[in-house]
From TrEMBL:
CDD domains: thiolase (cd00751). It comes from Nocardia bovistercoris. The active site is at C88, H357, C387. This is Probable acetyl-CoA acetyltransferase. Its EC number is 2.3.1.9.
Length: 401
């Protein structure tokens, strides 16, 4: 079976909720990063066999985002496209699906990525088409509604949202508010240092953001990093649930961004004149209790290690998406690790608490950053993991070229 090479991994800056990228729609973000990946690689766009793109909060403004963005990026009309959705793992799933296409010979070159514009996610009603009879129509916030309805209530009972699942993890492992805040501060400090040292320069492509008046503003840096974050500042924030651990300061952000790469059959690299930065070595997905969805990486990594024979000692980098600080600490506990044991390899450039969590794009954003960091430190293997609302986990093993 052919190896799936990863080529020209890039991402846009991660915009804050309602921030600099608010005026840039999801399909514009996706098209921008697709154009950049093709340009950076030097590939003839006619050689692209398909476009796999994730979007968790899809709508009819740009249906089937993979195809829509491919056309918007001015790829040849013969290039098809499709959409994936595994919620927080959707972007990583797009890369995995593209890799399977390449490995089985169904394609030679696939653009794989993910996008989310959370600033532009709409409110909606389910009662307008046929009328509500009388009274008012309810408008749902798609962001909140998706979190509330991430599992069937008849089977698992009511779960108010992702914050409740994080608190369940904190209680299971006795994770304190102080420990969660300390981890969040570390995330911001690491991201701030990575930015100041120029570590993101090779992976970020700037995006012009339209304004009502005047020329577009060029956005070229992540907005959510708070270099001045301290435990004392975070301690002042109110817990979201009574007597809880989770606050706005030790949780992931809501964001706007896109990320993508080429997934290419290894035996086509020379012919196409492409240089890989890495390979997808293996992957796994697993289910878990929706009430503790944050622990999804634990069974997913167990599956992945069983299939590949790899263990934590073999890894140069470990990425655990920071949905919540207490959730990351819970995953480490589930793996039988302490933060101190893996601190020099874990989320070394920050993650969702500091860089943000644009849901459909996050898995690819993590992949992009990990690939560039592996090259920077001449490492060999990186582990990328995601917890997923509704009770899933996903893990992928990335090998440097």
């Amino acid at each position: 079976m052919r190896r799936a090479a990863l080529v020209a991994p890039l991402r846009t800056p991660v915009g804050a909720f309602g921030g600099a990228l608010r005026s840039v729609r999801a399909h514009d973000l996706a098209a921008a990063v697709i154009r950049a990946v093709v340009a950076r690689s030097g590939l003839d766009p006619a050689r692209i066999d398909d476009v796999a793109f994730a979007q968790s909060y899809a709508n009819s403004e740009a249906p089937c985002i993979g195809r829509w963005a491919a056309l918007h990026a001015d790829l040849p009309i013969e290039v098809p496209g499709f959409q994936t959705d595994r919620r927080c793992g959707g972007g990583l799933q797009a890369v995995v699906t593209a890799a399977m296409m390449v490995q089985t010979g169904a394609a030679d070159v696939v653009v794989a990525g993910g996008v989310e514009s959370m600033s532009n996610i709409e409110h909606y009603t389910t009662a307008a088409r046929w009328g509500s009879g009388s009274g008012n129509l309810a408008l749902y916030d798609r962001l909140d509604r998706g979190r509330e309805r991430s599992q069937p209530e008849w089977r698992f009972g009511p779960i108010s949202g992702m914050i409740e699942t994080a608190e369940n993890v904190a209680r299971r492992y006795g994770i304190t508010r102080e420990a969660a805040d300390a981890f969040a501060v570390r995330s911001h400090r690491r991201a701030a240092r990575a930015r100041s040292e120029g570590r993101f320069a090779e992976e970020i492509v700037s995006v012009p953001a339209p304004r009502r008046r005047g020329d577009p503003v060029v956005v070229d840096a992540d907005e959510g990093i708070r270099a001045d974050s301290t435990p004392e500042i975070l301690a002042r924030l109110r817990a979201i649930l009574p007597d809880g651990t989770v606050t706005a300061g030790n949780s992931s952000q809501q964001n706007d961004a896109a990320a993508a790469c080429l997934v290419v059959a290894e035996d086509r690299l020379d012919e196409l004149g492409l240089e890989p930065i890495g390979f997808l070595r293996g992957w796994a997905a697993a289910g878990c209790d929706p009430a503790t969805m944050g622990l999804g990486p634990v069974p997913a990594v167990a599956k992945l290690f069983a299939r590949t024979g790899i263990g934590f000692d073999d890894l140069d980098l470990i990425e655990v998406n920071e949905a919540f600080a207490c959730q990351v600490l819970g995953v480490l506990a589930g793996w039988g690790l302490t933060e101190a044991e893996v601190s020099d390899r874990l989320n070394v450039n920050g993650s969702a608490i500091s860089l943000g969590h644009p849901i459909g794009a996050t898995g690819v954003r993590i992949l992009v950053t990990a690939l560039h960091e592996l090259r920077r430190r001449a490492g060999k293997l990186a582990l990328a993991t995601m917890c997923i609302g509704g009770g899933q986990g996903m893990a992928a093993l990335i090998e440097a070229a």
